[in-house]
Amino acid sequence: MARMSNYLEAQLRDHIFRTAVFTKPAGLWIALYTVAPTDAGGGTEVTGGSYARVARPPSDANWTAASATDGLTDNAAVITFPAPTANWGTVVAFAIRDAATGGNLLISAPLIPNRTIESGDAAPEFAIGALDVIFD
């Protein structure tokens, strides 16, 4: 199950219960990790071999609406990474960040099952509805 980062939890808490205003990110980028990040961040993001985060900005075309009872949103459009031109290793997690590089970790989750991605493999992707985020 996806979990919010400490950063996002603090921003939302201050926005709802205090006087701070949290402005939603202008962009969202999906990242892949060979060592999963924790709620505090860290982890080891894939690098090299044509890897790049994939942008899926906040919009109705990119993310489904949560129902009143399940809190689920997922990708409404396919998320396709570049085809690997070198071995990326075993991908164990994904994350949603607020920048193409660096930026803040917003949400992360294990990738089940893990996937070994090697040079020459087809471009990795999340099919429509495959990347789930549940607010519960």
Quickly describe the structure:
By secondary structure, the chain is mainly β.
Structural class determined from secondary elements: mainly beta
Shape: globular
Write down the domain tally.
1
Following the backbone from N to C, one meets helices and strands in this order, namely EHEEEEEEEEE
Q: What is the tally of beta strands? A: 10
Radius of gyration: 15 Å
Helical residue percent band: under 10%
Strand content: 25-35%
**SS field, number of helical segments:** 1
Biggest β-sheet description: 6 strands, antiparallel
- CA-CA gap between termini: 10 Å
Mean pLDDT: 93
List the helices and strands and how they pair.
Layout (H helix, E strand, L loop, with lengths): L2 E2 L1 H12 L11 E7 L8 E2 L8 E2 L16 E3 L4 E2 L8 E9 L7 E13 L7 E2 L5 E3 L2
Antiparallel strand pairs: 1-8, 2-3, 2-4, 2-7, 5-10, 6-9, 7-8
Q: Could you explain how this protein is built, in words?
A:
With about 140 residues, this protein is mostly beta strands. It has one helix at about 5-15, and strands at about 5, 30-35, 45, 55, 70-75, 80, 90-95, 105-115, 125, 130-135. It has one domain (about 5-135). The strands form 3 sheets. Strands 1, 2, 3, 4, 7 and 8 form a 6-stranded antiparallel sheet that branches. A two-stranded antiparallel ribbon has the order 5-10. Strand 7 and strand 8 (about 105-115) form a beta hairpin. The longest helix has 12 residues, at about 5-15.
